[in-house]
Every structure is written in C-alpha cells, then in structure tokens.
Specification:
By secondary structure, this protein is an alpha/beta fold. The chain is built from 16 helices and 14 strands. The chain has 2 domains: about 160 residues, Rossmann fold (3-Layer(aba) Sandwich), CATH 3.40.50.1100; about 220 residues, Rossmann fold (3-Layer(aba) Sandwich), CATH 3.40.50. The longest helix has 16 residues. Bound molecules: pyridoxal-5'-phosphate.
Length: about 400
C-alpha cells in the first residue's frame, strides 16, 4: 500500500506540493518527471549510486552511541554521523544521485543556485567527478559573505554567476537559475539542493536522502536489537536531511519525529526562520507549501545564525508532516544552538555544524522517559562555522 506521506502522481502531500512553474519550463520538468523513477529503479543507477556512496562519500556513516550526552539527558542518544561524509554533510548524497540522473538523461551542463554556498560546493564537487560543466548562481551579497565556499567552487571548476537583482540573495539566485534553465532546455539539468522546488524534486531528493534512515534501521538492529528508535530529531532548512532521516519511519507511528527550525533571535523578534510558526500557505520555488510572507504575498527575508537554515519556507512534505501532526515541530534560537554546539564539542569531542546544533539544542527541552532511544541526525561538521564559534566563545 502506498504511504500517505509519499507524493501522489501530481506531486502532492495532502494539499502541499505540485508544480507551479512558468509554461516555458514545462518540457524540462516533464522530462524529469517521466524519467526519474525509471532511472532510480534501474540496475545501472543503483549499482553506480551505491558504489559512489560507499567509496567516494564514505558510507555507511556511523551511528554513534553518545555515552556522555546520554548520561547528561538520561536517555539513550545515538548520533547519525552525516558530518563524516566527504564534503562534510548530507548534501553530497543528493548531488551524487542527481548527477547520475542528469547523466542518464544525457545532459551536459549542470546549473544550481546556492545561498550559503554549501549546495554549490556539493554540486561543483560531483560535476568535477563526472567532468560536467557547472554553473552556480549566487546572490551578490552572498558571494561577499561566503568567500571560502566561492573559492572552493572555483577551484572545483565551477563558474559562479552573481545574481544582482532584488535583495541579491538566495531567492534572486533561484530566479536566475530558472531563467537560465528556460533558455537552455535541451542540454541543461537544474540540480536542486533540498526537498523543495516543483514536483518531482521534493520526492526525488527525499528518496536520495532516504539512505540515511535505511542505514539507521540496520545499525539500530545491530546495537539495540530493534530497528525502531522512540524518537528521531533533525534540523530543517528546506528539509532534506530530516526527510532522509524520517523516510523509512514515516509510517511507523510509534516512532516520534521531531523537526527543529531555526528561531534566530526568537520567533517573535522579527529575525527568525521558524516557518512552521510564522508562515502560511503560499507558493515558493515552484511548489505549494508554507512560507514566511507579508500581507501582499512577498517573501519575508528569514534570519538565522546558521546559513543552511536561513530559508523562508519548508518543503511540501514537511508542510504536510506539520499540518497532519505526524512530525512535531520545535525550534531553537541562535544562542541555544551555539550552547548545544559547545556542549557536544566539550563532552563528545565532536564539533557539529551550526545547523545540526539546532537539532541538539532541543534535548534539554524534552522530558525523556527511562531508556528512551533517541537518534539525532548530525547533518554536518562544524569546520565551516569555526569563525562564528570563535567569535561567540568569549563568555
Ligand atoms: C544545508 C544544510 C542543512 C539544511 O538543509 P536541509 O535540506 O534542511 O537538510 C542542514 N545541515 C547542514 C549541515 C547543511 O549543510
């Protein structure tokens, strides 16, 4: 039986999803929609995807029993170590999968948009690996703010194109990417970095990231004798690492799913990215979802200390998980996330990405029962955030 948390044939999760795209993009999106499942289910795709995840990315990523963290919170806490992947986060699972799909479709040129540059780096990496041309659109302001990632992309052979319209940030880069795709429908593939965008992207990206929960199941059996934890916690920007960590548990109602958004300076501060609290229904990046918008439907610029969570919406699957209450949405402020990062570093010797630190930051807010088994998806490592960590370390 088909899960109600799987996209229907038009890409809907309940009322959310679909493909709200300019007429001119229809052939490109349709080509992908008609082919992605066939490709993903083919033996040649599966073989190459599995082999690259193993030998290039370094999968399976370990499931680590965090003993001192467990003692502190009086629960059994496991960390899914996506931080140990090549390039430092879960994003590479998705870009490897999509570059293989692009190759199967015969595409020669890859375009992407990036805010903080993490998805741009993951895309430039797989383009170098596959010898494909890579063009990354990035807001002019973000190019200035994220110089090290811009340098990485260039070193990997990508062309970084500044988006100079509007607020010169992510949404303007997205507009530029879409414009480019309309102009180059034959040879170009648009590689999206999270479970967002028009159908079939949210479903495709969730399936590519589902390797995370597939591994968690096998690893938990080995460690606890059972494949289900009591609780899984993951941070949500667009929602891809959470979708991957939740995927094989969506229909297991005994498993509590907790999605953590960035509250920034506080949900009521005007400087936040907690979409499930502040957003309402609208269309963002080609799908119907919930997003932060003003009374005229203009997107409100989000804010978070963590670049990867600084996004004005959530993917349609998460909008549905929130509405149906299948997942519990929580949030953590900048300072709560910083404290959680310092704590994990001190007691486990692991410096997490600021994004992942938001997932850790809800541990003190939960009343765990005895022997509760909890998996926290550690989506990335903190090397990229060192400057922020050092700057805030004063006290
Ligand atoms: C990009 C990023 C995120 C947020 O993206 P999702 O699609 O919500 O997973 C979270 N953690 C890290 C380390 C990231 O780089």
């Amino acid at each position: 039986m088909k899960s109600k948390f799987e996209a229907d044939k038009n890409g809907y999760y309940g009322q959310f999803g679909g493909a709200f795209i300019p007429e001119l993009l229809y052939p490109n999106v349709k080509e992908l929609e008609d082919n992605y499942l066939k490709i993903m289910e083919s033996d040649s795709f599966k073989k190459e995807f599995t082999s690259l995840l193993k030998d290039y990315v370094g999968r399976p990523s370990p499931l680590y029993y965090a003993k001192r963290l467990s003692e502190k919170y009086k629960a059994h806490i496991y960390l899914k170590r996506e931080d140990l992947n090549h390039t430092g986060a879960h994003k590479i699972n998705n870009t490897i999968g999509q570059i293989l799909i692009a190759k199967h479709l015969g595409k020669k040129r890859i375009i992407a948009e990036t805010g903080a540059g993490q998805h741009g780096v993951a895309t430039a990496t797989v383009c170098a690996l596959m010898n494909l041309e890579c063009v990354v659109f990035m807001g002019e302001i973000d190019i200035k703010r994220q110089a090290p990632n811009v340098a990485r992309m260039k070193m990997l052979g990508a062309t970084v194109v500044p988006a100079i319209s509007g607020s010169k940030t992510l949404k303007d880069a997205t507009n530029e990417a879409i414009r480019d795709w309309i102009g180059n429908p034959e040879d170009t593939y648009y590689l999206i970095g999270s479970v967002v965008g028009p159908h079939p992207y949210p479903d495709m990206v969730a399936r590519l990231q589902a390797v995370i929960s597939e591994e968690i199941k096998a690893q938990l059996v080995e460690k606890t004798g059972k494949e289900n934890p009591d609780t899984i916690i993951a941070c949500v920007g667009g929602g891809s690492n959470a979708a991957g960590a939740f995927y094989h548990y969506l229909d297991e109602n005994s498993v509590e799913l907790i999605a953590v958004e960035a509250a920034g300076l506080g949900v009521d501060s005007g400087e936040s990215a907690a979409t499930s609290v502040l957003g309402d229904v609208g269309v963002l990046h080609g799908s119907k979802t919930i997003l932060m918008q003003d009374e005229y439907g203009q997107v409100i610029e989000p804010y978070s200390i963590s670049a990867g969570l600084d996004y004005p919406g959530i993917g349609p699957l998460h909008a549905f998980l929130n509405e149906s209450k299948r997942a519990k949405f929580m949030n953590a402020t900048d300072s709560e996330a910083l404290n959680a990062a310092y704590e994990l570093t001190k007691i486990e010797g692991i410096i997490p990405a600021l994004e992942s630190a938001h997932a850790l930051a809800v541990l003190p807010k939960i009343d765990f029962k005895e022997n509760q088994v909890v998996v926290v998806n550690l989506s990335g490592r903190g090397d990229k955030d060192l400057e922020t960590y050092i700057k805030n370390l004063k006290k």
